[in-house]
Write a structure and sequence with these properties.
This protein is an alpha/beta fold. It has 18 helices and 18 strands. Helix 4 crosses helix 12.
């Protein structure tokens, strides 16, 4: 929010000023490691010294989590369990969706603006004063990790859960030398431009968080990755255990707070991390530790059932649609961006739209001949549902891999998209705060979106089943708002235009309920949430 200065010009709020200062730390270079990562990592210890955080970090009782998929979910479950056990928790995750303060949670709630500003300027001013040309200011993520340690130390949390940003070995969170326990979630191909092209190389980077004799847990992994994890663990005398997915029966009839079958893998890991943390800190006897595999304590069940995470398998109704009409736009948001997570996202979406339709129409259909295409409302008239895909991904990802995984998994569940919409992200990657939302720009480079569109059109042309199920749609008019409209897809120049088009369709097709899957990028999910919650 901006205020007006003495001369009538806009004056930034104290919060916006802090975000401007933070934005200055975002490097303009590409993410590819053109800087010696080891060298940059070692400088972190100098920053820790400048901020006099050595002892503070040493005293924090840290759970450190790396991995390709499920890091955020595992950390969220872990925090929720230990909070329900009565401990004061600190949780550091990335990225944020709407506000930078989401990355720093105290007792499950993002840090308040007042505390954020106090800790931010304390760290920023000291580093500004002590850095020079030889040791410049830390980069964006390095600063945020240092800020997290400062916040959690000052707030005297009982447990600190740190999610690795990227990789492990050279990640800013890895200045932690004595965590209580480490976890490695499912490994897969992601950030190969930085972490390496094979699962062995990726596993080696993630195993960089292992510390001498500190217990560690992982989930079932591909053999290639597991071999490296075990080798690294053995070298450091790390007792490494593999956790099984959580048995749903242990929840006593409740459901996990985070949706999707894959979450049972993450939940199993979080139970192991929590019980080990409790045991090492003297809060859980050895005998009870063994029992946890067969009977979960009530606090664990409550923690797992009440955990929540924005932008992962999240369903949000568009409140801007006229309440007087019977249909609606519902967004199904998931920040999946790897082949495996894309499959998990497609499975979740396919099942979620069926659940959603059943709930809306107050009836349980006969599953033997269930169709999500046409449903009966409780008043008896036919109401259709149309599935729309809203997609973007970073150019380092491979849409020739991501999009087929998504399309095939949905098709296997009888779900076909009426239209795929491709749109550039709204957020500027070199800004945080309200200024990070770019205005609609007709000169914006859409070459990547056209590439995504070509991939989708080729897939659809080759997918006879999709065509036979009416994937191409003649009733979706108004696509002159788009830059490029093809048979099965359209490219829009900005997200606000997409939302306007969807809202117009709802007004004009009152017998159709629109279910929009937003995926491919956590940034896109965050941008959609920002706009629909405005």
């Amino acid at each position: 929010m901006t205020q007006e200065g003495d001369n009538g010009s806009p004056k930034s709020s104290p919060y916006e000023e802090a975000l401007e200062a933070l934005s200055s730390l975002i490097t303009k270079r590409t993410r590819v490691g053109d800087v010696n990562m080891e060298e940059r990592f070692n400088v972190l210890f100098k920053y820790v010294k400048m901020l006099e955080l050595e002892e503070a970090i040493l005293n924090l009782k840290i759970i450190h989590v790396a991995g390709t998929k499920g890091k955020g979910s595992t950390c969220t479950f872990t925090e929720s369990i230990l909070r329900n056990c009565g401990f004061r928790t600190g949780l550091f995750t990335s990225p944020h969706l709407i506000d930078i303060r989401e990355r720093f949670r105290l007792d499950g709630v993002e840090i308040c603006e007042e505390k954020f500003l106090a800790y931010f300027w304390w760290c920023y001013d000291r580093l500004k004063e002590k850095t020079d040309d030889n040791i410049p200011m830390p980069t964006f993520f390095h600063f945020l990790a240092l800020l997290a340690f400062k916040i959690f130390a000052e707030e005297q949390v009982d447990v600190c859960i740190m999610e690795v940003g990227l990789g492990g070995k050279y990640d800013a969170t890895n200045v932690v030398q004595t965590p209580i326990v480490c976890g490695i979630t499912s490994l897969g191909y992601d950030h190969m431009e930085i972490l390496g092209n094979t699962l062995s190389e990726i596993a080696g980077e993630k195993a960089g968080i292992f510390k001498h004799r500190i217990p560690a847990f992982t989930v079932p992994q591909p053999d290639e990755a597991m071999h490296v994890l075990k080798e690294k663990a053995s070298h450091l005398n790390v007792p490494l255990q593999v956790t099984a997915p959580l048995d749903a029966k242990l929840l006593n009839g409740l459901k996990l707070g985070l949706e999707g079958e894959h979450q049972y893998v993450n939940a199993g890991l979080s139970v192991a991390l929590c019980s080990t943390w409790l045991n090492i800190n003297g809060h859980l006897e050895e005998t009870l530790l063994k029992q946890i595999q067969h009977t979960l304590p009530e606090q664990f069940i409550k923690g797992l059932a009440t955990a929540s995470l924005q932008g992962r398998a999240q369903i949000v109704r568009d409140e801007h649609v006229n309440k007087e009409i019977s249909n609606e736009v519902v967004f199904f948001l998931d920040g999946a961006h790897s082949p495996e997570s894309m499959e998990a996202c497609a499975r979740w979406f396919s099942l979620a739209i069926k659940d959603h339709n059943q709930t809306l129409f107050h009836q349980i259909p006969d599953h033997s001949n269930f169709s999500n295409e046409v449903m009966k409302t409780h008043q008896g008239e036919a109401q259709k549902s149309a599935q729309i895909l809203l997609f973007n991904c970073m150019s380092v990802r491979d849409p020739q891999v991501l999009l087929p995984h998504l399309m095939k998994t949905c098709a296997d569940h009888g779900v076909y998209f009426k239209k795929a919409l491709f749109v550039p992200g709204l957020s500027l990657y070199h800004k945080v705060g309200s200024h990070a939302l770019t205005p609609t720009d007709s000169n914006i480079d859409l070459s990547w979106q056209f590439t995504l569109q070509r991939v989708w059109e080729n897939l659809m042309q080759g997918n006879k089943a999709g065509k036979n199920n009416g994937a191409a749609s003649d009733d979706l008019t108004g696509l002159e708002m788009s830059v490029s409209n093809c048979e099965y897809s359209a490219v829009f120049s900005s997200l606000p235009l997409v939302l306007n088009w969807l809202r117009d369709r709802v007004q004009q097709n009152q017998s159709t309920r629109f279910q929009v899957l937003v995926t491919g990028s956590i940034h896109l999910v965050g941008d959609v949430l920002k706009l629909i919650k405005k």
